[in-house]
Amino acid sequence: MADQDFKYIIQDLTNIYLGARSTYEELMEDENVPHKLKEIIVRVMLTEVAPDTTPENHVFYMEKDSASFKAYKKMKARFKMSVWETADGKKRKKSGYVNREYSVEEIVGSKELHEKKDTIIVEEVHISKLGLGAVVV
């Protein structure tokens, strides 16, 4: 899969969908990203990580007490990921990737996901527009 497959910004009435392989710098330059989200990126995310960091990489290195974690939590961010699951013979007949959506709290708090981070494909970040409006910058 090419990196371009996961670089997009889509909005509907209630959510903003970001391709997880766009860097924070690319998101800042895109005119489709809401101004408030750009402010959060500048004032919160970029104080903790470099501009060439992607949300895909950032989520696995967040701490529960970091400002980035708190901002993503307030925005009700959910990460759509493909997680490799091995066959167990009962529920799963074949090994393969399974699409799941995780909240930022589930990812940061899960040792299992951190152990599998090299095989996980983070595809998308869903941000609630209502949650985005609740963040104070």
From TrEMBL:
Can you say what this protein is called? Uncharacterized protein
Q: Which domain of life is it from?
A: Bacteria
Task: Write down the species.
Answer: Eisenbergiella tayi
